[in-house]
Amino acid sequence: MRDFRFGFNFFDIASPGDFAERCRRGERYGYDTALVPDHLGAPAPFPTVVAAADATERLRVGTLVLNAGFWNSHLLAREIATADRLSGGRLELGIGAGHMKWEFDAAGIPWEPFGARAERMAGLIEEIGRVLGGGGYEQHRPVADFFGLAELAPVQRTGFGGSGPPLLVGGTGDTVLRTAARYADIVGIAGAYQVKGEPPGTFRLGTAAEAEERVRFAREQAGDRADGIEWNVLVQHVQVTPDRRAEAERIHAERMPDMTVEEILDTPFVLLGTEAQIAAQIRERRERFGFSYITVHSPFMDVFGPVIERV
Hints:
The protein is an alpha/beta fold. It has helices spanning 16-29, 45-55, 73-86, 101-107, 114-132, 141-147, 174-183, 208-222, 244-254, 261-266, 275-289, 301-308, and strands at 5-9, 33-36, 60-63, 66-67, 91-96, 167-171, 186-189, 192-194, 203-205, 230-235, 237-240, 270-273, 291-296. It has one domain (5-308): Alpha-Beta Barrel (TIM Barrel). The chain is 44% helix and 18% strand. The protein has an 8-stranded parallel barrel with strand order 1-2-3-5-6-7-10-13, surrounded by 8 helices. α2 (45-55) links the parallel β2 and β3 (60-63). It is globular.
């Protein structure tokens, strides 16, 4: 059974000083990773992960997750190698298929059906592995040799088929999870599920039964690789409270009327209770789902931080 790891993500940067202090505070709590999503209007992923690494001593940094539709494989490979070098080999690279149609529209990128976006993501992963593996720019070697240039390579050689940093693939759809099962060192199961028949980006929270089925599907696809994969869960809500049922009832009434109170209490995407109860939930969910890598959203970093020492 894998040891626990804990991560938190960033939604904004108030100031350089505030950002650095948040990173250091996360490190003091015992978080293992600071993570950055890839959304328009939010911080740019790679400058942010480099700054997070620079502000801390041991904290790993990563993306959770890059929108594959935003990236060209060669330009992304350059970003990966640079960030891994500047972080001292502390980068984790998370990739997803992208799910916010408005972002594609705003960026002038064609919106494709989910299957096409997932296939594009798989192709991107394969091509990045080839580029990071070296030998992709032989035709320019005479110029590079003349100027004394070396082809930049990552420090880490564990992910992307031994060519780069650890790879996390996150999502819930079949095609994404098949890709994750084939390539990823870390498989991320997100808590947000697209509501069928509603516009893209209309989400609901996944239930425990759905999470269990998605993990089972991914493990089946991974075959002999399954036990070597690290399983990540992105927790959508954390609340320390002496009465977890009362908090679940409030969430049901105010935010999640489509889930029962029991489903809210049971889902791995919500953590409710005293610090001791939340620690017990995390241990139980590692046994039940295999989730050993727990990530919380930025607003819950301080709420969840004291729980880490209890696990």
